[in-house]
């Protein structure tokens, strides 16, 4: 909170010196978004759009705000415009990444895969292999492949990428591989992938995000092995507290708390997510589970309806939507 308040003060001063500067307007909108002042953020972005109507990065930021708030019809239009306006290789990489985010949220693997292929092909043209491989954690197609039963495909992609660089850089894919294995329920393979974290720590030193992610994955392994999250709950808490603003870490803490029926704390974690990302269907489903556990049937149905509205055109094999319908 404090860092975004400070950033906003800085951008306010910059805006006084450079009124109408597009980059300043975008930066100010980013700070306002992080402070959950979404209407003000949109106002800044619309000002930037007026000043630079053909700037795809502005449309990219507006589309991401639309998705965050669940305004997917608007987001689709913005994404199409951003793609059509992208001219430079970097702009085209950004536009393809935006498409990935959109189709992941909508549960549509076909267009998600096509966007992934375009982005990786473009990235290979403009980035050296070491930079290209670091794009992987941002790929919705790879990190969420299990949502469509595409784990084997995603792991093959990671193997191909690993072959393009030498250690220790080749180990940067192992955290993603561990996540995919865990989503598939294969905790033994996930444990093997975690060895890559040791290589990275030895080469570059420990990093808070990597350490927290490892703690989370170890907690998920324990959950899968035990069949209950009770014993792993302290690790889930530790991971979330290490990187407090991580929605992914908080989501998993919320799921663990739900599993052990600590409803009030689970609600606190999920409400934090919904306040910041009301347009994420998975968080809606998580909220429905909590509300159902609390006996709030109508609220639970409302959250499921909201999630299924987002996934109204999801693929039949999209597992999260399937589970929400059951």
Description:
With 326 residues, this protein is mainly α. It is 75% helix and 0% strand. The protein is built from 20 helices and no strands. The protein has helices at residues 2-17, 22-34, 38-51, 56-69, 72-85, 89-106, 109-126, 129-133, 140-143, 151-162, 174-183, 187-193, 195-204, 208-226, 233-242, 247-259, 263-276, 281-293, 297-310, 319-325.
List keywords for this structure.
326 residues, 20 helices, mainly alpha
Strand percentage, roughly? Answer: under 5%
Characterize the biggest β-sheet.
Answer: none
Mean pLDDT: 94
Distance between the termini: 38 Å
Counting DSSP H or I runs of 4 or more residues, the number of helices is: 20
Count the strands? Answer: 0
Percent of residues in helices comes to over 70%
Elements, N to C (H/E) = HHHHHHHHHHHHHHHHHHHH
Low-confidence stretches: none
- Class based on secondary structure composition and strand pairing: mainly alpha
**Overall morphology:** globular
Gyration radius over CA:
20 Å
How would you briefly describe this protein structure?
With 326 residues, the protein is an all-alpha fold. Helix content is 75%, strand content 0%. The protein has helices at residues 2-17, 22-34, 38-51, 56-69, 72-85, 89-106, 109-126, 129-133, 140-143, 151-162, 174-183, 187-193, 195-204, 208-226, 233-242, 247-259, 263-276, 281-293, 297-310, 319-325.
């Amino acid at each position: 909170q404090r860092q975004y308040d400070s950033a906003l003060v800085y951008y306010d001063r910059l805006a006084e010196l450079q009124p109408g500067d597009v980059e300043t307007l975008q930066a100010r909108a980013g700070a306002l978004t992080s402070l959950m002042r979404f209407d003000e953020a949109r106002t800044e972005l619309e000002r930037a759009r007026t000043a630079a109507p053909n700037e795809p990065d502005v449309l990219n930021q507006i589309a991401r705000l639309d998705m965050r708030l669940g305004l997917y019809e608007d987001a689709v239009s913005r994404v199409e415009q951003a793609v059509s306006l992208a001219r430079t290789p970097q702009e085209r990489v950004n536009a393809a990444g935006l498409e990935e985010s959109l189709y992941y949220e909508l549960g549509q693997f076909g267009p998600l895969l096509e966007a992934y292929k375009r982005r990786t092909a473009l990235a290979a043209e403009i980035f050296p292999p070491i930079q290209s491989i670091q794009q992987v954690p941002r790929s919705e197609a790879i990190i969420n492949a299990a949502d469509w039963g595409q784990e084997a495909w995603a792991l093959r992609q990671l193997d191909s990428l690993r072959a393009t660089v030498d250690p220790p850089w080749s180990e940067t894919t192992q955290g993603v591989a561990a996540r995919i294995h865990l989503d598939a329920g294969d905790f033994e393979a996930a444990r093997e992938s975690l060895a890559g974290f040791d290589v990275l720590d030895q080469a570059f030193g420990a990093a808070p995000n990597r350490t927290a992610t490892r703690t989370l994955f170890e907690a998920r392994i324990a959950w899968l092995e035990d069949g209950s999250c009770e014993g792993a709950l302290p690790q889930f808490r530790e991971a979330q507290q290490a990187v407090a603003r991580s929605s992914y870490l908080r989501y998993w803490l919320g799921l663990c708390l739900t599993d052990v029926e600590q409803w009030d704390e689970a609600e606190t974690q999920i409400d934090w997510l919904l306040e910041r990302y009301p347009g994420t269907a998975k968080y809606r489903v998580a909220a429905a589970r909590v509300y159902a556990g609390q006996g709030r049937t109508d609220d639970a149905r409302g959250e499921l309806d909201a999630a299924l509205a987002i996934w109204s055109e999801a693929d039949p094999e999209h597992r999260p939507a399937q589970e929400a319908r059951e």
